[in-house]
Amino acid sequence: MFTTLKIVFIAVVDTGLDLEISFNHLLQGIGLPSSIAHLLWLPLPMLLVLTASLIGVLVTVWLERKISAAAQQRIGPEYAGALGILQPVADGLKLLVKEDIIPKKADSLLFTLGPILVLIPVILSWLIVPFGQNLLISNVGIGIFLWIALSSIQPIGLLMSGYASNNKYSLLGGLRAAAQSISYEIPLALAVLAVVMMSNSLSTVDIVNQQNTAGLLSWNIFRQPVGFLIFWICALAECERLPFDLPEAEEELVAGYQTEYAGMKFALFYLGSYINLILSSLLVSVLYLGGWGFPIPIDLITHSLGQSPNAPVIQIIAATIGIIMTVFKTYLLVFLAILLRWTTPRVRIDQLLDLGWKFLLPISLVNLLFTAALKLAFPIAFGG
Amino acid sequence: MVTFFQKAAEYAQDAISAGKYLLQGLAVTFDHMRRRPITVQYPYEKLIPSERYRGRIHYEFDKCIACEVCVRVCPINLPVVDWVMNKETKKKELRNYSIDFGVCIFCGNCVEYCPTNCLSMTEEYELAAFDRHNLNFDNVALGRLPTNVTTDPSVIALKELAYLPQGVMDPHELEKDSSRAGKLPSEVLIKTIDNDTASIGEKTQ
Predict the structure, then answer these.
(1) Do A236 and A18 meet the contact criterion of CB atoms below 8 Å apart?
(2) C-beta of residue A165 within 8 angstroms of C-beta of residue A105
(3) CA-to-CA distance for A105 and A165, rounded, in angstroms?
(4) Test the B interface: residue of A68, A342, A359 with most B CBs within 10 Å
(5) pTM strictly above 0.90
(6) If you average pLDDT over residues A297-313, what whole number do you get?
(7) Which residues from chain A sit within 8 angstroms of residue B37, using beta carbons?
């Protein structure tokens, strides 16, 4: 049993579409040295992922508006393009050409730096998001830890913009955002730690590979149901989505730290929050829902069809299925986040901190200890 | 120690019930995905106003006897009745009549008390104007009839909720000869008359 699992595992590691090697082969065939081929290759995945994330934001904004409309029995955007799909583009263009206002008594340097500092770590975190065995920018060894580290830069930017706006609402919003991010980072990191413990690696690729030994059944959500819930709650809090959108609570704080922002600087916040939502959903699917894995292992299907998993056509099909599965799982989670937005009322600040420190933190600690115990007791099922 | 476990158990129960209610709420929200929108796409679709809708006031100059009852019953004495006494015939001669709809609250008192029924309520409600003085309607403007929603070819007329058949919530794609829940007054009248004649017939037999 164990040996067969190991063979399948190795097979999964060895297969997979590697575009970099193909690209290098192609350029070397023309007669370029491998170092220049590598240099030419480097910007390609970055640009691709950046474009993908921006298109993802447009799709998410459209989905958010359409699903919100459906939840309230409205129609939603309708006239900008077919079914209003161009609405987010129109919104973005409008923000782009809007006047960039800096309040007179605001600290203009910090005011400008704030939104940039919020957006950059979020975009940087896409570095470790895998869409397939070799379909990611860089398989960094510290992988998921890099994301946790980067996401703690965000509250600094929020605090900065809240302070620099010279506005009571902004300051309160910024303070709330910082408090919220800091208190939810700990249970989030502990939930991730439990997953990392099971897969013996911080690398996102290894985490997904470890989940895809037996298809649907080996996904982490069945081994880490509590961890999944903790991670999802914390991810929502990190993204400042309802029920945890206190930093921008409309009824109390106008728009929180965004109050004084307009034009492109506001667009950066807007972009950052949606990229963060997609990123969190992606990481939930990577950590708990088997990433690019199909519910039935692809190798099993190719094996039963009598095909070699290393044939180019099979590789391309497998990679396409992988990307589709990742995006599908991600948008399922985005849908859930939007449904939650219209289902749950906003929590108070004391309830928020209570939930974070008194409930999620102890539960995630217990979850971690329990996972460690299970790992020692059943090393086969819990990644010995 | 026992109390601690008791507390922990209660806490866990609370957490589980909270999760259950959250799922219940999610189910309700999810159920809305399959429901049709109830919104009316206003400039293209319009609701048919009810029979007793209190819209812009219609006025017939020829029926008016310049009694000024409308002015007296108006909460702010709004209608302006411009008349002169004709010494020869010893009768009031009406020259002008106007109501400022920028000030009118559409209470309908003037319509209620007009002795000659020269005032009436229409179903017109689109009174927006660029200048508020344009809302001061004189007797010519007051005498115009509004465009009917049902006859306007550029508008899809929709029935209001109370006028839909029983169990129907969506006015779109309604069958043409569908009638609202319950009976129309005319139907009720005919039935009672039929019953009366039937009972009279029984008596004579």
Answers:
(1) no
(2) no
(3) 8
(4) A342
(5) no
(6) 77
(7) 69-70, 73-75
